[in-house]
Amino acid sequence: MNLPALSKVEGDARRTLDKADYERFLPIVRRIAMRAARRVPRHIAVADLVSSGWLGLLEAFHRAGPSMCAEEFEAYASYRIRGAILDYLRSLDTTSKHMRRASRQLARTIKDLTRSLGRAPSEKQIADALGLDESSYQDHLARISEAGMTRLEMLDFDHDEVDSGVEPADDELSRREMAVALSVAIEELPPRLQQVLALYYQEECTLREIGAVLGLGESMVSRLHTEAVHRLRAAIGRE
Description:
By secondary structure, the chain is mainly α. The protein has helices spanning 19-37, 46-63, 70-90, 94-117, 123-129, 134-146, 168-187, 191-202, 207-214, 218-235. The protein folds into 2 domains: 19-90, RNA polymerase sigma factor, region 2, helix turn helix motif (Rna Polymerase Sigma Factor, Chain: A, Orthogonal Bundle), CATH 1.10.1740; 94-235, Butyryl-CoA Dehydrogenase, subunit A, domain 3, CATH 1.20.140.
């Protein structure tokens, strides 16, 4: 595979992407793409996510200055790779845009109810606020999940602007702060939702495996996961 060497024309030397870089970053691109693939609909090919990730890596080499140390650059490149994959996912169809709005509305509704009630709302209270009966609310959660709007470990993917201009060091600080906020928010979830998240993210169980552990159907586990993620988004202000 021949990769272009990117450099700044004005004489201010920039990083170039060569064969050694390709071999070094291939596992990183594939790892990020595979993590994304686990959270999106199954018809989206991993190869397409990997290709999009390479575009993000090329962009990182184009933008980063030569003075950036290896550790900083790897963090910055990972940020660009994730952003490029998100851009690809957002370009697929108009349905994803509609479901992103539905996902934000759900998290915002949970946040508003929590503020007004002084505690976490029940499923019925959330459904009522959305103008849905409980059965329709469950269907609503299922549609949001099927659209791939429940990527907890990639919450930054839910922002409308990936390229926010934030410097890598500041971005890393924001991620650490969000991790602390997430930890607190998870402790306030109902025990069953905590268990679903633990099995899914820590034990890396599939939805079917979680269902077997909890004695629930796979579709029910998917809805519980969707509700848990949106409660967390509401709690940390990422609605």
